[in-house]
Structure formats: C-alpha cells, structure tokens
Recover the amino acids of this structure.
C-alpha cells in the first residue's frame, strides 16, 4: 500500500504540491488527471524519491520513502517507473536494456537476467526485437521496452508519467493496450495521463489535480459523470 | 635555376635510427594521451560539479592549455621551470608539456560529452534501483565515450604531431633525430621529406586503427 500524508513540495518558492493525502491499495489502478503544471508528475517523483519533499511523507509498504535511514535503491525496486520521454538506454540492445538492472541491482546471474529480460520483452510484444538497438525502434516500441525494463525488476507498483504524451497519435494505442494488460493482470498502478478514455475504462479511481491540490477523487463514473468540483467540471469540459 | 642535387643515401643509411626515434615519438604521445585522458576527465568533472579553488584551478588549466601556443607550454616546462632551478630531462619536458596541452583540450571534449547526456537518463537508471555510481558507469560514461571517441582520435594525432616541437627543447624524438642528422650531413630537405612521410604514415595508421576499433565498439 502507498500512503501519502499531507505532502508538500516546493521548487524554490514555487509551491507545487499543497498538502496531498492519498492512499493507493494493492491491486488498485489510479489515474491522475489535470492540467499541465498541476503537480501530477511531481507527485510520482515524490513517491519514488526522485524528488525530495519539504513536508509530509510517503510510506510504501510501511517504509517511509524520504526518511534518512531508508535504502532508497532497494525501495525503488518495488516502484517501477515509466517516463514520458521513454528514456531507453541508446547504447544497449533491447535485451540489454531490460537485463541490466536485474543483473547489477538484484545480482542475478547473466543468463538469468537475460532470461527474465527476454520473457518481459515477449510479454510486451517485443519478442522479435531482442537484439535491436533502441534507435531502430519506434516511439511506441521504445515505450513498451521501458515498461518491460521496469517490470523486469518485479515491482509491486508501477508509476506511469504521461507514458503516451510524447508518442505519435498512431502509436498511443499499442502502449495503452500494454498498460491495460498490466491492469488486468492485477498490477497496482498510478497513471498520470491525458488519456481520458483510458482513465475512464481502466481505473478503479480517478484523481483530479488542480494547482497542486487534489480537488477530487472517486470512481471514474463519478469524476466523469458527475464531477463535484467546479475546476473538475471546467477541465473535463475543455478536454472533451 | 634548379640545380639542387638530391642525395638520399645518407637518409636511407640512418633510416633505422629515424624509425627508432619514431617509436619514441609514438611512446611519448601515447603516454601523454593516457595521462591527458585521466586528467582531462577529472578537469571536466570538476568544471561540471565543483566550486571554489578546485574549479578555479581546473578552469585556469583549460584556459592556458587552449589559449597559449603549444610551444610556449613546452618552454614553460623546460626553460620556465629551469630558471627556478628545476631541470627536467627533455623527455619529461615533452611528456609534461604534451600532457598539459592534451588534458586541457580533452577536458572540453569531455565536458561537452557529459552535457550531451540528458539528466533523464540518470533518472531512469535511478528509478530502476541503480545507485549513482552504477548509473554513471553503466549508463552515462559509455554514452560519453562514444561522443568523445573521434575527438580523442583527433587529439591523439595532434599529440604525435605536436611532439615534434620536442626538438626545440633538445628531445631526440623523430624530429629531433632528423634535425641531428640533417645538420651533420646538410641534406636538410631529404631528411625532413622522409620524416614527413614517416609522420604521415604514423597518423594514417592511427586513423585506420581508430576507425577499425570504432566499428567494433559502436554498433548502435
């Protein structure tokens, strides 16, 4: 379970997250929507400790992410992350991209790591691209590669930071399909997204962020069908 | 009008000595490059990540190496230090002068290389649980190495050619040796013509080897 208590985040004097309280249970799929700059992505970075926080805390399975004694590298193995700019490692083949972290972080043997990698790549539909370098893959394929790379660490949670925003429109579908598949397999997911269709169909709950505040959270039927907050109504009217 | 008679025999007779001197040239250039790469990497990292006196030192090093004549840099390690009573052997003067110069140029190449790797590569590595050292050595450095590979080759060529300045501080590398024989036989043109060919061949070999290695190293 991910527990977020009264989380505040500043970039200099800019107050980006203004007291977020949020719990995400095992097996749940949470979509986070809202305008750019509303703090959605920052929330993800605070959850896996890539960004320090100024107040409040994030607790993952009982471990305080930002506490001094926390082994953050160990904790991050539980928190797979997929970025907007897919960030494949250009100097490694698809297989090596996925096998590297299991090998050097988890200490798996070379053959074991490669086996895991091949399996994960097959899982996301890249079984025929094992020895290809990322430069020869499309954006959609690179994003699926990034998903496989995160999954190879066998995380309990997956964090998606606008995983489809940087893709050409015709490539969005294949990545959403992969995310949908993960959701059906029972993966716990927090998806920051602009894909309203995905948020509505796949999530158990949807959270709407506005200027660093979580304005509203609830099942998709409520957020999309009967939004309570004025800001949510305005935002949804504009994206439709 | 053109009545110079070529005499190649003396040159050919001393060819073994010239080739031996060529090896010395290559040796000092390779050593200077190895030291230059290590120091240049440190200078680049200091300039990217540090403040205070170390930053000042690194910046001054790079500025002096790049913005003053290479010959003067050699003279500094020879006559400059000599006037303070520190007398280095000609070999050491050339090695230190070359290293100083190469480190300065390579530092800027490395700095550009590091800046070309987006921060998001580190973030992605860290998100997988890698520590900072693993992210640096497994993800950043290999990519930087590819970016600076061809500039390093250029610098290697430059180190070989620049080592010829060594003859002006009494170093008997290829040029110094040539000068020595030329002044004894007065076949100045012939000697330097042959030496030019030797330099040309050395440089061609370096470029060829570098290209061959690149196809092995960089498959992406």
């Amino acid at each position: 379970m991910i527990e977020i208590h009264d989380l505040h985040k500043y970039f200099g004097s800019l107050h980006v997250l203004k007291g977020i309280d949020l719990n995400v249970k095992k097996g749940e799929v949470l979509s986070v929507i809202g305008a750019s700059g509303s703090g959605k992505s920052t929330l993800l970075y605070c959850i896996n400790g890539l960004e320090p926080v100024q107040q409040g805390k994030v607790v993952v399975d009982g471990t305080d992410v930002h506490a001094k004694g926390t082994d953050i590298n160990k904790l991050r193995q539980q928190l797979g992350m997929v970025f907007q700019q897919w960030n494949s490692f250009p100097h490694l083949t698809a297989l090596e991209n996925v096998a590297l972290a299991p090998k050097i972080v988890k200490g798996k043997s070379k053959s074991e790591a490669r086996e895991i990698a091949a399996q994960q790549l097959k899982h996301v539909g890249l079984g025929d691209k094992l020895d290809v370098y990322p430069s020869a893959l499309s954006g959609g394929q690179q994003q699926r590669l990034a998903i496989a790379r995160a999954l190879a660490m066998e995380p309990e949670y997956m964090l998606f930071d606008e995983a489809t925003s940087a893709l050409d429109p015709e490539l969005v579908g294949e990545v959403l399909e992969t995310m949908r598949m993960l959701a059906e397999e029972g993966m716990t997911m927090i998806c920051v997204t602009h894909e309203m269709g995905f948020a509505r169909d796949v999530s158990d709950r949807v959270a709407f962020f506005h200027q660093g505040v979580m304005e509203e959270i609830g099942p998709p039927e409520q957020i999309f069908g009967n939004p309570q907050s004025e800001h949510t109504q305005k935002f949804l009217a504009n994206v439709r | 009008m053109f009545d110079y008679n070529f005499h190649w025999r003396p040159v050919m007779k001393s060819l073994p000595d010239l080739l031996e001197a060529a090896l010395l040239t290559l040796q000092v250039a390779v050593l200077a490059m190895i030291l230059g790469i290590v120091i240049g990497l440190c200078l680049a990292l200091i300039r990217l990540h540090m403040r205070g006196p170390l930053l000042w030192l690194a910046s001054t090093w790079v500025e002096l190496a790049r913005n003053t004549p290479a010959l003067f840099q050699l003279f500094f390690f020879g006559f400059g230090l000599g006037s303070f009573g520190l007398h280095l052997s000609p070999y050491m003067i050339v090695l230190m002068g070359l290293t100083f110069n190469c480190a300065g140029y390579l530092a800027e190449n490395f700095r550009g290389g590091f800046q070309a790797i987006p921060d998001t590569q580190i973030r992605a590595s860290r998100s997988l649980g890698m520590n900072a050292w693993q992210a640096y050595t497994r993800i950043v450095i290999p990519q930087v190495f590819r970016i600076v590979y061809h500039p390093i080759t250029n610098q290697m060529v430059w180190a070989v050619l620049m080592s010829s300045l060594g003859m002006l501080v009494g170093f008997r590398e290829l040029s110094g040796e040539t000068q020595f024989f030329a002044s004894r036989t007065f076949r100045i043109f012939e000697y330097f013509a042959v030496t030019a060919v030797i330099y040309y061949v050395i440089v061609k070999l370096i470029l060829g080897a570098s290209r061959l290695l690149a196809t092995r190293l960089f498959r992406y």
